[in-house]
Structures are given as structure tokens and as C-alpha cells.
């Protein structure tokens, strides 16, 4: 693949990355899709890893779709972050992508705690970071396939 094509792909990744970050922050902080914008009187937080994950799993029969939305929604919404960061970045490091995703998730969780809109939950950090890692792995697989396809095309010419 030519250097120009690589730069174009990276630029496209940067554009999608910025749009995604704006969407993500709006969705996680300002949207009221399940009553999150109600300011609470007290601080609400969970510092015990896997407590809420286990609770949602144990009560999945009563909570029905809400347990799925909470558990998998936190993972799914962060998958594009891992994919787009790897696509837009020159460093494309697994470790840095995971750290960046964790830090963004931490920023959102701390904002929710301080503003008393939502709650700080260590399980959200775990689920969100898992989503970033899955996104990075998906990018890596796509990148390997792209390179294999590009190599085959160059051999044909």
C-alpha cells in the first residue's frame, strides 16, 4: 500500500475517532436514555470489582433485557474506541490503546461521581476497557487481512 493511501486511511480514522469521542461523551455524560441526568443528593459508587457484574448476572431473570444492556452495552460502546484509535494512531500499541481507553473511562466515571449524575463503578472500568481491547484486536485482525490482500495484489501486478 502506498504511503499516500496509508495517510488517507489514518486521516479517515482520525475524523471518525473525533466524531466517535464526541458521541461517546455525549452519550455517557449528557444523555438521559435511562434517567441518568437526574442529579442525586449523595455520591454513589462501587469500588468492589465484579460486584455489579455479578449482581446483573444473578438477577438477569428479573432484570431481563436491562442486565444484557448494562453488561454488554458497556463493552460494545467502547469497541469503536479501540478500533479507531489503532486506525488513527502511528504507534498502534496494544498497551497504549488499553491505557487510553481505561483513562477515558476513568474520566467519565470520575465526572459522574463528582457531578452526582450517574455513579462511579469499577465494573464499568473493567467492561469499558474490555471493549477497547476487543476493538484493538478487531483492528489487528482487519489489518492482517488488509496486508495479506495488499501483498497478493502486488504479486499479481
SS summary, helix count: 7
**Overall SS class:** mainly alpha
Sheet with the most strands?
Answer: 2 strands, parallel
Report the portion of residues in β strands.
under 5%
Shape: elongated
- DSSP E strands, number: 2
Q: Rg to the nearest angstrom?
A: 19 Å
**Which H/E pattern describes the elements?**
HEHHHHHEH
Strand order of the largest sheet: 1-2
* Unreliable segments of 5+ consecutive residues: none
CA-CA gap between termini:
13 Å
Q: Mean pLDDT, rounded to whole units?
A: 87
- What percent of residues adopt helix (DSSP H or I)? over 70%
Layout of secondary structure:
Blueprint: H1 3-30, E1 45-46, H2 51-58, H3 60-63, H4 65-76, H5 79-88, H6 94-115, E2 120-121, H7 122-156
Parallel strand pairs: 1-2
Helix pairs in contact: 1-5, 4-7, 5-6, 5-7, 6-7
Keywords:
single chain, 157 residues, mainly alpha, elongated
Amino acid at each position: 500500500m502506498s504511503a499516500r493511501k496509508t495517510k488517507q486511511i489514518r486521516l479517515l480514522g482520525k475524523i471518525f475517532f473525533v466524531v466517535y469521542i464526541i458521541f461517546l461523551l455525549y452519550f455517557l455524560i449528557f444523555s438521559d436514555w435511562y434517567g441518568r441526568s437526574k442529579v442525586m443528593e449523595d455520591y454513589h459508587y462501587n469500588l468492589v470489582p465484579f460486584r455489579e457484574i455479578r449482581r446483573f448476572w444473578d438477577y438477569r431473570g428479573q432484570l431481563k433485557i436491562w442486565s444484557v444492556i448494562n453488561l454488554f452495552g458497556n463493552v460494545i460502546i467502547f469497541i469503536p474506541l479501540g478500533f479507531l484509535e489503532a486506525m488513527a494512531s502511528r504507534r498502534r500499541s496494544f498497551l497504549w490503546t488499553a491505557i487510553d481507553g481505561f483513562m477515558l473511562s476513568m474520566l467519565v466515571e470520575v465526572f459522574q461521581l463528582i457531578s452526582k449524575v450517574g455513579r462511579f463503578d469499577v465494573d464499568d472500568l473493567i467492561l469499558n476497557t474490555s471493549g477497547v481491547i476487543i476493538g484493538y484486536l478487531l483492528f489487528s485482525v482487519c489489518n492482517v487481512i488488509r496486508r495479506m490482500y495488499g501483498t497478493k495484489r502486488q504479486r499479481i501486478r
